[in-house]
Design goal:
It is built from 16 helices and 22 strands. It is of the alpha/beta class.
Amino acid sequence: MKTIQIHEKDNVLVALTDIQKGEVIDHQGTKIETKQHIPSKHKLTVHDIEAGGLVIMYGVVVGKTQTFLEKGSLITTGNIVHETSGFGKRNKQLQWKVPDIEKFRNRTFKGYQRADGQVGTANYWLVIPLVFCENRNVEVIRQAFEEELGFGKSNPYKNMVHQMKELYLQGDLGAIDSLHMDQIAFSSENRLFNNIDGIKFLTHQGGCGGTRQDSESLCALFAGYIHNPNVAGATVLSLGCQNAQFEILQEKLKLLTTENAKPIIFLEQQKEGTESHMLSQAIKKTFLAMAEANKIERKSSPLEKLTIGLECGGSDGFSGISANPAVGHVSDMIVALGGKTMLSEFPELCGVEQELINRCVEDQTADKFAHLMQSYANAALSLGSGFDMNPSPGNIKDGLITDAIKSAGAAKKGGTSPITDVLDYTEYATKPGLNLLCTPGNDVESTTAMAGSGANIILFTTGLGTPTGNPIAPVIKISTNTALAKKMPDIIDVDTGGIITGEKTIENCGEEILEYIIQVASGEIKTKADRLRQDDFIPWKRGVSL
C-alpha cells in the first residue's frame, strides 16, 4: 500500500512511500495519476479542488487552496494556506468507547509513595536558584556533588580532546579523523545513596528584570516541581533583592498542599554574607537532607497513580498516523485505569478546538479551554505572528504544510477519552482523566510545564529526532518511523514504525508503550534521555512563544 486516507471525509491521501510523477494510484476503485513526484509523508489530492477550496484531513479543515489543484496534485506551501473551521459552544453528545484494559487492570509499578498520596516514578533532590544571579553558585554545588555521590559521569569527549592534543604535539593531524568515539553510557556504579535517582539543578535566566508576573509564574512553576511526586525535597538559593521572593514560592506551595510539606532548605546570599559561607551551608544541609530522603524505598503501586504527559517534537508526516495515535491509545488506557494524562502545546491544537470542546465533561471546562485558546491566539496576532507560523522548516519539509495539519495529527496523542479538566500554565493536575494544559508548542517549554503540573512520566513522539529530556520526569522517546529508530538509536526508546508498514496496529504499539512505562516507572530501565542526562528546563515567559 502506497497511500492512506486517514478519515473517510478527507480529500487528500498521505504517501507512505515515495511516489513518482505519472504513477497511477488505485484509491477505492478510483484511478489517480500523480501530477508531480510525491515524497513520502506528503499529501496528494483525491479529486480536483477549485481555488479557494477547503482541504480536509483527519476529517477537519486543515487548509485552503490558493490555486486550482488537479486530482493527483502534491499539496505544498505554495498552493495551500492555513485554514480552520473555527469553534463554538460544547456539544454534549460525547460517547466514549472505553478500551480493553483487562491485561493491565491489576498491574502495578514500583514507585516512591509520598505522604500526600502521590507516587513518584523517581526520587530526586532539587537545587533551585530563585534568580539567574545564583546560577553560578548552583553550578558550584553541582560540581561538588554529582561525581562524588555517583550521579555524574565521566566526559568521554575530554578524553577525545586529550588524544587530539597528543596527536597535534606529535605533528600527526591526519590521524585525528580516524579517532573512534565509543557510545556514551550512563553509569551509577559508585552511587552513595541507592534510593535517590539524582540531584538536579534547575538553572534559568529569570527571577528578576522582567515583569512581576513572570517572576510569580516562575515561583509557581518551582512549586509544582517541588510538589511533583518524583521529588523528595529542594535546596533553594536566593540573592535577596530579586522579584522572585521565597515568600511567593511558599504561597504557591500552600496552594498545592497544606500538609506533609516536603523539606526545603532556603539560603539567601545577602543575609548569609560571604559566598563561601552560603555554599558550605548549602552543601552540608543538602547532604544531610539527601541522607534522610534515601530512607524511602520503592513499593508496589497501582497504575492509577501515573500522571502521563503527552508531547511531540520534531514531528513529521507520519506522526499523526503512527506514534501519536499509539500514544493516544495509551492515554485512553491510563484514563480507563483511573490515572491522569496531560495534553499540552495549545498552538498545536489549532483547528481541532471544537472536537476537544465537545469532549469536555463540563461547560465550564470547555469555556476555559476556548478562552485560553482565543487569548493565546490574540496575543500572538498582536505581535505580528500567529498560530499559522508554528510549523518549523523541518515539519514542512516532512509533510506538515500548515499548522492545522500539524495540529490535527498532534491532537491524536490525547486519544478519545472525555476531557476532565483544563489547566492554565503552572496549574497542577488533580482530576483523574485527560487534562489539557496551556503551554507553547516549544518542546522544552512544554515538557518543562508538564513536569511542573505533576507529570511523573512524559511520552514524547518524534519523526525527525530530538534529544529532549526533563530533569525530574523520565521522558520516553517514541519514533514515528523505523528509519529514525535505526538512525538515532541513542535517543529513541520505542519504535512505532510498524504501524506504517502494516506489521503492527495502533493497539499493539500502545500496549508495548504501556509495558515500557511500567518498567521505567519501576526504575528497572533508564530512558535514553536519562542516560544522556538530557535535563532540559525552560520556563515560559508569558509573552508569546510559539
